[in-house]
Amino acid sequence: MWKGRHTHTLQREFCKRVSRANRILAFVRQITKGLRFLFSASGSLPLPLRLYLLRSVCGQEEMAAGETQLYAKVTSKLKGRSSSALLEPLLDMGFPAHTALKALAATGRKTVEEASDWLRCHCNDPSLDDPIPQEYALFLCPTGPLLDKLQEFWRESKRQCAKNRAHEVFPHITLCDFFTCEDQKVECLYEALKRAGDRSLGTFPAAVPLVLHSSVSYLGFFVDDGPADIIREFAVMFATEASVLADCTVKPCTKQLHLTLAHKFYPHHQRTLEQLARAVHPGHSCQWTAALYSRDMRFVHYQTLRVLFQYKPQNVDELTLSLGDYIFVDPTQQEEASEGWVIGISQRTGCRGFLPENYTERASECDTWVKHRTYTFSRALDPGSRKDEASSRRNGEPHAPHMSRSASSLQSLQASILRRGVLVVRHGERVDQVFGKSWLQQCSTPDGKYYRPDLNFPRGLPRRSNGIKDFESDPPLSSCGIFQSRMAGEALLESGTSITSVFTSPALRCVQTAKHILEELKLEKKVKIRVEPGIFEWTKWEAGKTTPTLMTLEELKEANFNVSMDYRSPFWACASAKKTKRKGSGSW
């Protein structure tokens, strides 16, 4: 009996040593790969980053001697927190320590589930083992009624005056520049924030006076000198604590503290922006919160795209897209991409590939930032709640972790039902694009009758008062163009898109496209096509100077197009009024 129990103990000890040996071997491989990456990329990386990577790789040589020491130092400094509570479960799942720490840093060290999901999504990420840390920054963020007013200003200024640089980030006051921190020392930053906050809590101003300032390219609130000095002292304390605890070089903000409302906008929008800003009263109730955010330092100068539609790759070099994904795109590295496509890197998977650009929209710079921890300057909070004050929100938006998927889907469905928008559609393939400018000579007899010389020519042409010659400058869709239009209508039908009004250019190809889309939507009898001359394309690029002769409403009606005979274009009505005025009085 004793012998069997002793054998079991030896076996367990043997398994532990084998597991540890495997981990050490994995780190040795990591060191080799890191050095290989460092030397291969040294020509394209700035010197500070190369030096940082070299220190990181050399540091991992020490880690290989005892992997568990990666987080032992952190645990000893933070007596109230257990770093191993998040790391140990990931190690038990078989993830190497360096990638587990990387996942925890990338997800804000919130839960084991988020970190493990991140690791599974990044299983094919070629940069997973690269020793590149996150960048961190500390911001002072408003909350409560003042934040509500600022967010309303953000929405209205974007709607009335277009997007400017301020819309890239949430309302904030910058306390320090972005800095790097090694993944295994991130939790030390949290302790640095807490210590600096506790030391500043007694002197932090109950209200932060804000003064509106405006110029031709900037609009924002400046902080008065007295409170600004206290806030700067807090930033210096954080920088000092971060240097001691996490070995980070933090540069506190030395400029005049400010909260930007608009930046690099068009000069003619200045007055409108000032009027909107006056509705934001600085005296609104507010609790200020110091928030620690991180971002991926590799994509600082990239464009950020948000995925609107799912996409399944048709080729091995294309990305899989899921609704809500974020894609990083380098505008300077798009030579290999054809028109309508871009090359990007998925934030969700870390993989690089081609994707259709019209499946995405421009996102804000801060949409991919991760909020780690916050410190609220309120004496009403008890020390126990401060000890674990950790936001589960990203970018200022509340996150409800217990909300069910079905409830979330229902809310998304309701939002999509209530949302209204304009769907802009380009016409399908036209015959002159396929058969050239002389297409009409290929399909007409000497006596002016149409015949079909190729299956991609339409089956027939509608009757026009001036005969077939007018089609030369107003060509119809090809057979493929008709098929494309029907496919677009079918896709809209399957997506559940509701169409209430249709406006189209008077060009025949556009009217045909609208007709075939409505037919697939089963709306050809219910929704009339409104012919709008004001959206007809600009023809100055054409070699000929002749304005195209377009089909009249009567001719379109006779050709079985369900056009509205009552609709009158505001553009055309204005032009007619001007002509009448000139005839009546000789001037306008």
UniProtKB/TrEMBL annotation:
The lineage of its organism: Eukaryota, Metazoa, Chordata, Craniata, Vertebrata. Residues 300-365 form the SH3 domain. It is found in: Cytoplasm; Nucleus. Keywords: Cytoplasm, Nucleus, SH3 domain. It comes from the Eukaryota. Residues 384-400 have a biased composition (Basic and acidic residues). This is Ubiquitin associated and SH3 domain containing A. InterPro entries: His_Pase_superF_clade-1, His_PPase_superfam, Phosphatase_SH3-domain, SH3-like_dom_sf, SH3_domain, UBA, UBA-like_sf. One of its GO terms (cellular component) is nucleus. Residues 381-407 are annotated as: Disordered. Residues 81-122 form the UBA domain. Signal peptide: none annotated.
